[in-house]
Every structure is written in structure tokens, then in C-alpha cells.
Amino acid sequence: VPLYIAATCLAALAAVTLGWFREGLPGDPVAVVTLLVLGLLSILLRERDVGSNITFSFLSIITISSAVLIGPVGSAVVGAVSMAFDRSSRTAAARIFNASMVALQGAAGGLIYTAVGGADLHDELSPGALLMRVGLPLMVVDVAQMLINALLLAGIVRLSWGVPPRRFLVQMITNSGVAYIGYGVIGFLFVILWGPAEVGAFSAVLILAPLFVARWAFVQYGDEQRAHERTLSALVTAVETKDPYAAGHSSRIAQLAEWMAEPLSMGAQEVQDLRFAAMLHDVGKVGVPTRLLRRPRTFGAGDVESLTRHPALGVAAVRDIEFLSGSLEGIRHHHERWDGLGYPDSLAGEEIPLISRVIAVADAFDALTTDRAERPALSPDQALKQIEQRRGRQFDPHVVAALATVLERHEWAVTTATEEELENSRGYLDHDDPIAWERVWTRMAALPSANGTVNGTANGTLPGAEPDPHDAPTRASEPSEPTRIPEDRPVEQVRSP
Amino acid sequence: VIPSLRDLPSTLRLHRVLPVVSIAVAVGAVAAAVASPQLPAKDWGILSVFAVVIAVGEVNRIVLPGGRETAPMSLAAGYALAMTWDVGLDYKVSFGAGVVVATTSVGMLAGAVPALVRRSPVRADDLAARFLSVAVAALLFRHLSVWNGEPLLTLQDDWVTTRWVTAISMVLVSGIALLVQSFCVAMATASRDHRPFWRSLVDEVRQGAGLGAALAASGTLIALAEWPMGIVALPVFLIPLVLTQFAIRRFAGIRETYGQTIRALSRLTEIGGYTRHDHPARVAALSVAMGRDLGMSDRDTLDLEYAALLHDIGQVALREPIPDGATMMAAPADQDRIARDGAGIVRQTNVLDNVAVILESQAKPFRHVRELGEDLPLASRIIKVANAYDDLVGEARTRRARKQAAAIERIHLGLGYEYDPRVVEALIRVLDRRAAVVVPG
Predict the structure, then answer these.
(1) Helix locations, A45-164, DSSP H
(2) How many C-alpha atoms does A345 have within 13 Å on its Cβ side?
(3) In this structure, are residues B250 and A53 in contact, taking their beta carbons and an 8 Å threshold?
(4) H or E stretch including B150?
(5) Which residues are paired to A460 by β-bridges?
(6) pTM, full prediction
(7) A208 near A189, Cβ under 8 Å?
(8) A 278-337 → B contacts, CB under 8 A
(9) A294: which chain B residues are within 8 Å (Cβ-Cβ)?
(10) CA dihedral B297, B303, B308, B309 (to 10 degrees)
(11) For a pLDDT cut of 70, what percent of chain B falls above it?
């Protein structure tokens, strides 16, 4: 690495010397000083994080314009001095490397400009000549500077972190290529105004004013976007205030769902929709009577009915937020089952949106790995086993496979609760827990009124209210388990007519 | 001090007067342009390019984060036209301000056509403010004698070696024209939203400052670059402004989304069966009208609106909904707890602290100010009154007038004790205006 930096440094020096012989020193000291001040300002005022992946490099505009305005030597000096004051380079080596790189860009830019026939700005040029003999060469300089930048960075990244240079180059050029074209165009405007329009140094103020305002707006945008995300999570908090035993559930699911998107190779937009749908999937619980969420001693068919309305209520709650339009389906169908026995629309298989299938799995997995009054949290392996047992019935096999992949790559912490919390939550039904939920069905199905005539007065009793030592969670779905729900029992039988 | 614009008769209200004035100016300008000597063909070409760019700029209007509409590209092109003199190295245009104004009016009207065809509303007062602003720039730059009876337009020939002086004079002219625009817009919003004029002007200038700087710079850039580049300079030098416009549009977009999210949050209580249909939205509309009437700034009004939308969010923590969600009827201790729970939920966002502060005090009676010297935020006092009013009247369709009268009477009983008298007066003014709008129709 030190050798590489030294080589960059030497190349920069060589280019500056060559520039000196070919073009001489810059003739206009006022221009050099002005550009130098601008370069320093752009470096010192640089914002760390503009947000939303938009970065503005005023220095790039200045190095491009200086290549034309003050020639290779001047341009190299402006670039090198500005970069030397960059606060973001932590080590001296990084500082030297950055300064040499920008100096090389500047000197090479100045040389290339004359080499490809760029016009001297002191000549009188017609509008057409301005475009062809200043604009075009300037764009060549622009591309050359981008390539120098990308190549040198690829080299140092390869040496320091072993990142394959080809991939780095492609990424870099796709990411900042468009921005560089923009820098070229604005550099061109700057040069025209400075030279042919004879405004001189004051043109910097005029050109940079709209850009500063644009940058200010982008910063505001970033702030507002973060504020918005936080507010959105308040939606979730509001619901969790109502259902304290589900605290943190939504954000855990959002994280897990985002991980699962990767092995399922979902697109960027789909991942965003998934993340928001996962975060807000239970927002409709705000419309479920509080007593059902807190300590339901008894649980009737009418109560199942009100609980199963929560996906639709959730959709109603966030329907008017435009950017969530891609997440609505995901929220509505997150309790559908692969075999078509879920709610609210009894969709089956591929009819269920992928987002919902992912949330269904993540939802159940998180519920199983959470401490409950009637059982301790399952370990991730046990929970995965439970989920895999329901593969092809409740869950999409592909999504279950994705969960297994994710658990190999990421640590998953089970959610623990204190004794006191467990005691308080005795009788709480977690509607996301597949085992507990199946038990509710079974008990209700065992009641005489279950066959299509269930009404709100028929009560099933919840597992927590009547602890059963033989009902260990790991055994809940073994074939010998007497209370296991029959696979072909449609959910409609349980819900009231 | 200033005669109150709110109290003018409705026909004289400025957001209606402004477009009429503009039409008069435009007609006068067209007449002057027709009467003036024949223009050379090259001038016609230049003018038509400007008219087209102004029209395109008008079509690409943007909505600023405050909710006001503007068309940056159209304005920048208008200012550039007002300050156009050398186009190409050896050509000077020969038209005056009348032609500039006529061209601008053609461009702006053409730009409004697509919106009219789509039947989406065109804000006539904002359009008029833009138009008048360009007219002012043209008059200042082309006809106002600055030195030895010469206007800035011809003076720039003396400043060939110091072009930056020309540049500064152009920035100044655009700046003044922008101030004229802000002044017009502030008058229009003051009369439309019934706010004090100074408040509107301050908000207008503060909100428009950033974009204004970009606009003044862009108009100047174009006018200066026309000398070496010819008319090509117009589209080319609008590029930085296009970027600015894009950034501002993104910013306004996320603001809008933010508003949608808050409105969705406000409906959670309704879905949970805690509040009556649309109660938060009604309280918010009423609160905002009262806040404007009391001269709150835009920033404070936005906090007030969000707080009013979320004022019942604390109810989701209740075990059982209170009847009709009418917090006004609940016991004071319960009201206070709901207020604190709501503030707690909102505080967790870490970004809506102002709103949380308002929510915390929303249930406190006004007498705390006098008796305990407590400092209740104005927004909290407004929400308290607006909430009580809506709890009492609601969406009543039948016998609405009588219910309103009864509600006002009941609120009057708590005047000074429960409710701030100044805020109640604002409520009555807002209700009177609403009645005045509804009854004649």
C-alpha cells in the first residue's frame, strides 16, 4: 500500500511537471486564488451525510473547471491543497493519497483539454465554437477525471481490503457516472460564464447559488425522511401500547423479513414494501377490543371473529399513505395459509403475495422464540423445526427454506420476559403463535356448537388459563398429540357465521 | 397598526383583486407592444423561445413544502427576458418592457392551458404574483433611469470591463422583483386564510428565501450568458435550477407523505372505536383556522395541525373506550392521563417533541395560567377549545345551528376558567366566517 501511494504521488508530480513544460504556469493569479478558496470551502463545508444516497462533490466541479481556466499546474495545486485539508481522511497516508489523486486528476485534465483541441478562452468564439471547442473537450476531461478517480480507488481498495477491482469499478461508475456528467455540464457553464461572458470570479457565486439551494433541499429531504420513518414507527408504538406483550415484535419481524428477502432475491422496491408491511402488519390490532389483547380468561368464537379482522383493519388504517400502497396487500394477507385455510380471504399457494408469505413465517418464528406464560421461548432451532413441520400446510416451503438460510447467516436472540411480566400475561393469547392458535381451534372445534353454529357465547378456554403439563410446545404437533387440529378442518367452521 | 386585511368586504379581498390587476397590466402591455415600432425578425425568434420556455416552466410547477405553488423555471426565464440586452456577440435586442410583459403573459397563459384542460385548479393569485413580479423586473431594468438618465439596460455597455457590476445589478433587480412577488402572495394568503398580513409576509419571505436566491442567480446567469452564447444560453443555464427544482420537489414530496402518515395515525383511534368519525380531522381543521386567525407562523401552525390530529392518540391505551370518545365529558384526571399517554407515544418518535409538548398541556384548564402562573402553549389552548366544540357539536346534521349555539354557550360558561377568552373569540370569528360562506349559497 505505501508503495502504491508513493507511485500515485510520483505520477501526480510527473503530470504536473509535464504540464509545466507544455503549458507553463497559470497566468492569472486572481483566478488561482479564487478557485483555491472555492476548493477549500467546498471541502471544509462538506456535509458528512446528505442522506438518500445523494452526494454532491463541489470539488469535482472545481477541478474540472480549473483544468480549463488555469491549466494543468494550477488545477493540480488547487486540487491537492483542498484535499490536504480534508477532515475526513484520518491518516496521513490517506491524506497524501487523496491529495495526489486529485492533483493527478487536475494535471491530467489540463493536459487532456489542450491535447483534444480545447480552445483558449481568450479567443473570441462563436456560440457554436463554444459548444464544440470548449464544451466537448471539457466532457472528455470530465470522463478522463472520473476514470482516473475510479481506477486509482479500485487499486487502493484492492490492496487494502482485497475487493476485486472489476466489481468495484463497475459499481463506482454506475453509482457516480451520472453525477460526473452533471459535474461536467456545470463545470462547462462555470467556464463559459467566467471566460467568454467575462464575469470572472463572481460567476462562482451565481453558479453555486442554485446548487447550494439544491443541496440544502436534499439535506432537508434526508432529515424529513428520517423523521418520517420514526413517526411511522410511532404507529406501531401506539398499537404496542395497547398490546404490551407484543412490544418490539414489529421491529423484530421487520428485521427478520428484510434478511429473508435476500435469499429470496427480492428487488429493492419489494424489499422496502416488505419492510414496511412487516413493521405495520399488526397495526389493525388497534381495532381489536383491549380485553382480547390483555388477559382473556375465556375466548369465544365471536372473539376469534374480532381478532381475525385485524389484517383488514390494518389496511384501512394505512390505506391513505401513498408510499405504502405496495405494502397493503402484504398486510392484508399475512395470516393466509399455504393450504388456503387462513384468513381473511382463504387464499392458497402462489395466490398469496410473496410479501405476506414472508411475513407469515417471520411472524410465527418470532412468536415461537418469545417467552410466554405457558412455555419458555423456543430456541431458534426448535422454532425452525416447528415451522418446518408446517411447511406446505401453513407456510410456503421456499420461504421456510429462506428462513433456514437466514438463521445460518445471522444470530437470532430469543425474546425473554421477567417472571413478573409472565405472571401478568397469564392467559394472554399470542395470535401469531401457531401452536397456541391451533389449540384455540381445537378446543373450539370440540365444543358442540362448533359445526357452523358457533356464536359469541360459546367459549373455548385458553391454554394459559388451564396449564397442562403434558402440553409441552415441542410435542404440540406430533401426530400422537390428541388435541392436534385435523389438517382438513377449514377455518370457516370455527369463525362465527 | 396596519388596517386589518381580514375585515375587508369579500369582493375587495386581495386574492380576488390581484388577478384582475394582472389582466389589466397584461392588456396594457399588449397594447403598448402593438403600438411600438416593428421589431426585427431576430427579436421575434428570441421572444418566442422565451415564451415557450416560460410556458414549459409553468407546466412544471412545483408545490413548496409550505403548500404554496410556484414555477421556478418560468420565473427565472421571465427575469432573464426582462434583463436581456446582448444576444450573441454583436446583436442587441430592441424591445422594451411592454413587449417583455406581453411575451410573459402569453407564455404564462399558454402554460396554464394544460391544467385548465385537465380541469385541475390553477391558483390565479399565485400566477398573478409571478406575472407582476416579472413586469416589475422589466420596468426596473429597462426603464428606470439610474445614472445620467440611462437605465441599467444600456448602462451595462459602460461596464464591459467590469461585468460583475452588471451581474450584481441584475441580482438586485431580480431580488426586488422577488420581494414584490412575496408581497403579493402574502397579501393574497392573508386575505384568503384570514391571517394578519405581517405574519404572512414574514412566512413568505422565510420560506421563499432559498429558492429565491437560486431564482435570482439563474435569471442573472441566463441574461449574462446570452452575450457569448446567444439564445442557447436560456435552456442550458436553466440546468442548475432544474436540479434545485428536483431537490425541492423531493423535499415537498416527503413532507406530503409525512402529513399522510400523521393523518393515518390520527385515524387509529377511530378504527379502534375510541373516537367519532373524522373527529381528529375536524378538530385539526378548526384549530388551524383559529391558529391562522391568531397570527401563528406557518411552522407553529404545522405543529398545531399535527398535535390536533393526534390529540386523542392517548386513548388507545385505555382499556375501554369512553362514550363517543368525547374527552370533554371525561373526568379531569382521565383527560390528563389521556393527554400524557398521547404525549408519551408521540415523544417516542424523538422528532415531534414540539407536538408532544402541545399534547401534554391540551387538557389543562386556562386558570392554571392565572392561578399557577403556568405557561400553557397557545396551541394547547386552541386544541382544548376546538376539541370541546367538536365534542359538543360533532357531525350533527339535524338542528346543527341550535347545537352550535348550545355549544358556544357551554364554552362561554367556562370562559377564563376552563378556556382562554382570546381563543374563544377566534373560534367565534372562524365560525362566523364559515356561516357566511355557507348561508348565502
Answers:
(1) 58-69, 71-84, 92-115, 127-129, 136-161
(2) 15
(3) no
(4) strand B150-151
(5) A299
(6) 0.78
(7) no
(8) 283-284, 286-287, 290-291, 294, 313, 316-323
(9) 319
(10) 130
(11) 93
